[in-house]
Design a protein that fits this description.
Layout lengths: L1 H29 L8 H19 L3 E4 L2 E3 L3 H11 L1 H18 L4 H21 L5 H23 L3 H44 L9 H18 L3 E8 L2 H8 L1 H18 L5 E6 L2 E7 L3 H16 L2 E3 L5 E3 L2 E8 L5 H4 L2 H14 L5 E3 L10 H5 L1
Helix pairs in contact: 1-7, 2-3, 2-4, 3-4, 3-5, 3-6, 4-5, 5-6, 6-7, 9-10, 10-11
């Protein structure tokens, strides 16, 4: 009996570790561990952990009439400590119902289902406490094992019989809970480092906007989507006028503040579907899906006017005027992919024309291919 019990508990332990690693992989992609969850997400997470607990129950070892030893309660504990009270409660309810459905409905199974509901209530209450996850898991484990002890006393014949199995299950539960905690924390720290590296690889460190590499990824995706949906795609190239003069006159910290505040204004003026990026130095871009050239020109003019009529706050408290030049270009839906990739080149050409003709203005390139030559081509 002892060997079979140890084998069952070890199998439960291996399943638990496997599940935690799988959950860690999902967390790396969706980043849900340790975050506030919506009610729907909490219910779904509780159902997933409940199904996991059912798997643990299927590897139970009988220690008495309709009484089994397993580590199913750890599914409730992990859900409460890492995801919150709602997943723990849903997980407990699912395990209690499955305990009655998958086994004969007897007094012992009813008391086992009731103990699972009590476990869920306790773990949900503990999940609301402002404790560390280690403390939540440890306290939840001890409380739950107290309920298990009471259940065994109720279902088995005598205290001596209970003490033949309970110390082993208690030791296995506490040891497994501790190991699972350190495994989960290691996975979460690894995921946090991965997310930080991902952000640094795709985000401009100063403004928080997309960097040039991420802009190129968005551009490729939007070009494919525009071609597939037969929609126009426009691009604004934005450049701060006389930015070197700002750095030379007020210092580089002041220049950084101008960049940050311009980024905030671009984000504020953009639509939810627009993609705002800093492409380097004082150069920014705004990618405008489902937008004609005329609409892009209007958007660029709104941004230019808003910047011109506002003052930028410097670190020393001084406020200075800043202007920008904007180049607009559009890719119509009837262009093939090769021609569409010239979108950035045409936006840059329009921007150069705006700067060379006096700055603080919006210029545009006609949609291409076009039978008329652009301003620069006429000069050439």
């Amino acid at each position: 009996m002892l060997i079979d019990l140890l084998t069952s508990l070890f199998t439960n332990f291996c399943i638990l570790v496997t599940f935690v690693f799988l959950s860690g992989s999902l967390s790396k992609r969706y980043n849900f561990l340790g975050r506030t969850m919506s009610p729907l997400a909490g219910v779904i997470a509780g159902l997933i952990f409940g199904l996991f607990g059912i798997i643990l129950m299927s590897y139970s070892f009988p220690i008495g009439p309709n009484t089994y030893a397993n580590l199913r309660h750890l599914a409730i504990i992990i859900a409460g400590a890492y995801l919150g009270w709602l997943p723990a409660a849903v997980c407990a309810v699912l395990l209690a119902v499955s305990r009655l459905l998958f086994y004969d409905i007897t007094y012992n199974s009813l008391s086992a289902a009731f103990s699972l509901l009590l476990c869920g209530a306790c773990c949900s209450w503990i999940a609301l406490k402002p404790w560390t996850r280690l403390r939540k898991m440890t306290v939840s484990n001890l409380v739950t094992m107290g309920l298990v002890f009471a259940l065994l006393l109720n279902n088995l014949d005598g205290f001596q019989t209970v003490m033949q199995v309970f110390p082993i299950e208690l030791a296995a539960s506490l040891a497994t809970g501790l190991i699972i905690y350190y495994v989960a924390e290691y996975i979460q720290r690894s995921n946090e480092l991965f997310n930080q590296l991902e952000v640094r690889a795709t985000t401009d460190f100063l403004t928080g906007l997309n960097n040039r590499q991420q802009f190129q990824r968005h551009l490729e995706d939007e070009l494919l989507q525009a071609a597939g949906q037969r929609e126009s795609l426009s691009l604004l190239a934005v450049d701060i006028d006389h930015f070197k003069t700002i750095n030379d006159t007020y210092g580089h910290p002041a220049g950084d503040q101008v960049l940050i505040q311009l980024a905030q204004r671009l984000i504020g003026a953009a639509r939810p579907q627009d993609v705002v990026s800093r492409n380097g130095g004082e150069e920014f871009s705004v990618l405008l899906p489902v937008c004609t050239l005329h609409e892009a020109e209007q958007a660029g003019e709104r941004i230019r006017a808003a910047v011109e009529h506002d003052l930028f706050l410097l670190p020393d408290g001084q406020r200075i005027p800043v202007t920008i030049s904007v180049g607009a270009a559009c890719c119509r839906p009837d262009y093939d992919e090769a021609v569409s990739r010239l979108l950035t080149q045409h936006a840059d050409q329009a921007l150069y024309r705006a700067k060379n003709s006096g700055r603080n203005k919006v210029c545009s390139e006609p949609p291409y291919p076009h039978e008329n030559q652009s301003y620069e081509r006429q000069l050439i």
